[in-house]
Amino acid sequence: MAERVVLAYSGGLDASVAISWIGKETGKEVVAVAIDLGQGGEDMEVVRQRALDCGAVESVVVDARNEFADEYCLPTIQNNALYMDRYPLVSAISRPLIVKHLVDAARSHGGTVVAHGCTGKGNDQVRFEVGFNTLAPELDVLAPVRDYAWTREKAIAFAEENKIPINVSKKSPFSIDQNVWGRAVETGFLEDLWNAPTKDVYDYTQDPTANWQSPDELIIGFDKGRPVSIDGRPVSVLDAIQELNTRAGAQGVGRLDVVEDRLVGIKSREIYEAPGAMVLIRAHEELEHVTLERELGRYKRHTDQKWAELVYDGLWYSPLKGALDTFTTHTQEHVSGEIRLALHAGSIIVNGRRSEESLYDFNLATYDEGDTFDQSSAKGFVQLHGLSSKIAKKRDLGL
């Protein structure tokens, strides 16, 4: 039996060409593995059959939509994870799940090599290979696009020369990655930072002015940091993301134009659409403001940022990321309640909060009759709070 390569298969040109190329160049059989992350587009059975038509000895489709939502999107919500305070990790959180299923497929189908189609300029090569090396260091890794300097032109020529059954005539100026959590677009004229995105860049969102006269107000319910209802209707995490993609997308919410710092050391310009993600993170963060004790909330804002950086940098399976997951789970114990918000003209406006776990005390906060705050204790508190600074300043002034 020939050695087998387990290939991350998207159904696109490069991945389809890779099936034939790997067979011809290495003599190994290819097992194609496609992961359904709610990306939409082609029917997954069509994708599965295409891999076989291109020469794969086996082709597997994994429906990982709920797994992705529950085990990858949910922690992103609970960590309010925005890389560089903007990007909700659309691609970054999908890679460790793909790695997991490729490793599983390698073990169940006798694979000794795993393959991906990443370039040498991007972050995904790191996310894939660090994941493989952590979960299955015994597997070799093949990266033909990176290691053999493939270009689109080379891939098309190879496909035509070898009569690979895939349409190579359609040429998009963009490189696109998408799943239920969002959509990432780069390359083409977007590489000039002065060029504004045109309407054909977007797919998950409408023009923010399209529904100017009809803002959408809704209520999102959480239980221990997990979204469980929209407008009182029970939802799964996947349901919540999908519904909010539609409703927030109709209001133009979730469009992001970002110049980000890639792990390899270069800056890149990315256009993201993540309507559901941005709404859920905003609502969850607001509920934490209501339910987390002050010092815990302050500290968690630091760990949220670090969690996002670790995931962006491909360290999903790292010890520090695991330790932060344990910490985050503990912080969510009281993050239950409802957030009311309005979606309008590309904006998310929170206008209501309620929770049985709230630390907001009306009688302490009010300035009207019924105020229970003892203002007489404030004078001594202020004096003691600044005492160390006062003593240091006196020393500095020689007093």
From TrEMBL:
Domain named Arginosuccinate synthase C-terminal: residues: 174-391
UniProt xrefs under Gene3D superfamilies: Argininosuccinate synthetase, chain A, domain 2, HUPs, Single helix bin
Location of the protein in the cell: Cytoplasm
Domain of life: Bacteria
EC number: 6.3.4.5
Pathway(s) annotated for this protein in UniProt: Amino-acid biosynthesis; L-arginine biosynthesis; L-arginine from L-ornithine and carbamoyl phosphate: step 2/3
PANTHER family in the cross-refs: ARGININOSUCCINATE SYNTHASE
Record: residues binding ATP: 8-16, 117
Quaternary context: Homotetramer.
Positions contributing to L-aspartate binding: 119, 123-124
Pfam families: Arginosuc_syn_C, Arginosuc_synth
Binding annotation for L-citrulline: 87, 123, 127, 175, 260, 272
GO molecular function: argininosuccinate synthase activity
Residue intervals of the Arginosuccinate synthase-like N-terminal domain: 4-165
Family that this chain belongs to: Belongs to the argininosuccinate synthase family. Type 1 subfamily.
The organism's taxonomic lineage, starting at the top: Bacteria, Bacillati, Actinomycetota, Actinomycetes, Mycobacteriales
Catalytically driven reaction(s): L-citrulline + L-aspartate + ATP = 2-(N(omega)-L-arginino)succinate + AMP + diphosphate + H(+)
Protein name: Argininosuccinate synthase
SUPFAM superfamilies given in the database record: Adenine nucleotide alpha hydrolases-like, Argininosuccinate synthetase, C-terminal domain
UniProt keyword list: Amino-acid biosynthesis, Arginine biosynthesis, ATP-binding, Cytoplasm, Ligase, Nucleotide-binding
EC top class named in words: ligase
Cited InterPro entries: Arginosuc_syn_C, Arginosuc_syn_N, Arginosuc_synth, Arginosuc_synth_CS, Arginosuc_synth_type_1_subfam, AS_cat/multimer_dom_body, Rossmann-like_a/b/a_fold
